[in-house]
Design a protein that fits this description.
189 residues, alpha+beta, six-stranded mixed sheet, 5 helices, 32% helix
């Protein structure tokens, strides 16, 4: 490993450690609650207008966690980060941060959003009671692609959580949400 790569690995590891240990009561990096709500509402509205499957699930979901603006950057080492709102109907019931780190053949920057549709009370309860949920552990989750979204109905939906990725922009091959850590926060005012 070259000295440059070793320093980059150490910097990303330190940044992720700091970000994942920030006290949930006072996240100094968090935007205001009204800013998160505004972006989450706009993103969910766009998703529903473009995806009938998401709109149908939204009517039956116990809660929808919307991360409207995730940013990912990488050069061999990568990190992604963003803030979102948990909605029950049209009411925000909590604010969350998502963060992840990755390593491998990757380079570029990307911006995207994703929404998690919690279909069972136990899945929503798991999110609300966990000190941080790493996607891929806990409730079963299905990432819905374009083809599946066309055939998905509320009667065919059998998983605990459905994830829709949307508004992808940027120059980076590959994108995933598995391994992302989701932590409840108290946003800035």
């Amino acid at each position: 490993m070259t000295p440059f790569v070793a320093v980059a690995v150490a910097q990303v590891a330190l940044a992720i450690a700091i970000l994942t240990t920030i006290n949930a009561q006072a996240d100094p990096l968090a935007p205001s609650a009204s800013e998160i709500d505004h972006k989450a509402s706009a993103a969910l509205s766009r998703l529903y207008s473009q995806n009938a499957g998401a709109r149908a699930l939204g009517t039956k979901a116990k809660g929808v966690l919307v991360f409207p603006d995730i940013r990912k950057g990488a050069f061999i080492l990568g990190a992604q980060f963003g803030y979102g709102a948990l909605r029950r109907g049209r009411t925000t019931i909590g604010y969350y941060r998502t963060s992840a780190a990755s390593y491998g053949f990757q380079a570029g920057v990307k911006q995207f959003g994703y929404a998690l549709f919690f279909m069972t009370p136990s899945a929503l309860d798991y999110l609300e009671k966990s000190a941080g949920w790493a996607i891929g552990t806990g409730p079963s989750i299905v990432v819905v692609d374009q083809g599946m979204a066309r055939s998905l109905t509320t009667t065919s939906a059998r998983s605990d959580v459905y994830a829709f990725v949307f508004d992808q922009k940027g120059l980076m091959g590959g994108m995933g949400i598995e391994g992302s850590k989701i932590t409840q926060i108290s946003p800035g005012s």
